[in-house]
Write a structure and sequence with these properties.
Length: 412
């Protein structure tokens, strides 16, 4: 699962010369095998829409285009991460991200006895490989490194990466189909996972709250505004407190399933911490009047845009994280919200400057390459401010590296 860093190209959605598949002619075109998978997914979605009486919620649509067995984006075997995929994440940009994160792990493992790390959605496996290698150097390896991965294709790729990079540590790694039992002690973490959890889309129109559903019209998927059917969705949206101006015209996303998702994780953690890194905002910024079109973002071959109906199953579909909602869910689950900071400050507090200096002399090619990678991860105009990190604790008190330098919890 999966920031995405890509080339923002919304103009291609407006008035470009289009290919037969609805994307800009100057974008990389999908091959025939990919198109076959996409067409199968479209037919499945059309049947689901017909069975539902003409439309489905966007959360239902997002779940299927990302995770439908065999045809969803994360299930169909297409390459997603890296230069030959659709986007790159911080662990793919530089090994320094995982090496910095190892300092956070070290703090938590020392306090909990160093037993378990559970990674949710391990992507290509690069994060796990670099993290375990660094923890070995720090003499702080966990007894078990657990990976919960719902994509069979990604699991195979992770096994290949880890077998190649750290074969001597494979005995510590276990892949899971469901959350572990019995409870674990240590760390649960996810890098860019929450943004890919299905969300509902809602709209305020002339002081009326509506939900954006997906229908099939004129040989394509399209939006349709409907009365909100879920009382839970309606209550959560209204509790946000939109002003009168926003109630006239505003569109955004909400994830009512976030609390249950986090509660399931909390139930499996006996003692330790959860760390979530992702792109997102506190609620006041998330639903700011200037963000009246929402946060939905799609990624196809390093092009970022806002149309979730292009090439279903062949592009990533995400929404920014409401970190206030995540903190509230944590409190409701009995977790202590003990840290919230930017990715830049997280990396500074985990010794990225020291690790960068180890790359070599400042005029050395390796150093210059590593320095450019660090800029991408830390500059405000890149990932540094847009990406955040949140710390949730259970049964421990110490604040680990990464969350001691700059605390933004007052903004939640």
């Amino acid at each position: 699962m999966a920031g995405r860093i890509g080339v923002l190209n919304t103009s291609a959605l407006q008035d470009p010369p289009a290919s037969p598949w609805g994307i800009s002619a100057d974008w990389p075109q999908p091959d025939e095998d990919a198109l076959v998978l996409s067409k199968r997914l479209v037919e499945m979605l059309r049947e689901r829409i017909d069975d539902a009486g003409g439309s489905i919620s966007f959360a239902d649509y997002m779940e299927k285009v990302l995770y439908a067995p065999g045809v969803g984006y994360y299930s169909a075997g297409l390459r997603k991460f890296g230069s030959d995929g659709d986007f790159v994440t911080a662990p793919e940009i530089s090994p320094l991200f995982a090496r910095c994160f190892a300092r956070t792990c070290n703090s938590i493992l020392n306090e909990t006895g160093g037993k378990d790390i559970l990674e949710l959605g391990a992507g290509s496996g690069v994060m796990a490989a670099n993290l375990l290698a660094e923890l070995e150097r720090m003499q702080c390896l966990p007894e078990r490194y657990l990976i919960l991965e719902r994509s069979a294709e990604l699991r195979d790729r992770q096994q290949e990466t880890l077998s190649h990079r750290i074969p001597h540590l494979l005995s510590r790694i276990q892949w899971l189909n469901r959350l572990p039992e019995p409870q674990i002690s240590g760390l649960i973490f996810a890098n860019e996972v929450i943004d890919a959890l299905p969300v509902h889309r809602f709209a305020w129109r002339d002081n009326e709250l509506l939900e954006l559903h997906v229908t099939w019209r004129d040989d394509t998927f399209a939006w349709v505004e409907k009365t909100v059917e879920s009382m839970d969705v309606a209550a959560q949206v209204k509790a946000i407190g939109f002003d009168s101006e926003s109630r006239n015209h505003f569109t955004s996303e909400i994830n009512p399933g976030l609390k249950d998702w986090l509660a399931s994780l909390a139930s499996r953690l006996a003692r330790g911490a959860m760390v979530f890194t992702d792109y997102g905002y506190p609620r006041s910024d998330y639903y700011h009047p200037q963000r009246s079109s929402g946060t939905l973002m799609c990624h196809y071959r390093h092009r970022s845009h806002g149309d979730p109906f292009l090439l279903p199953g062949l592009q990533d579909v995400t929404a920014y994280v409401d970190f206030t909602a995540l903190a509230e869910a944590g409190n409701d689950c009995g977790l202590a919200v003990k840290g919230f900071t930017t990715q830049a400050h997280f990396l500074m507090d985990t010794d990225i400057e020291t690790l960068l200096a180890e790359a070599g002399p400042e005029n050395d090619r390796n150093y210059l390459e590593a320095a450019q990678q660090v800029k991408t991860m830390m500059l405000p105009g890149e990932m540094g401010e847009r990406f955040k990190a949140m710390l949730l604790l259970k049964g421990i008190e110490s604040i680990p590296a990464g969350f001691r330098l700059h605390d933004l919890r007052t903004r939640l």
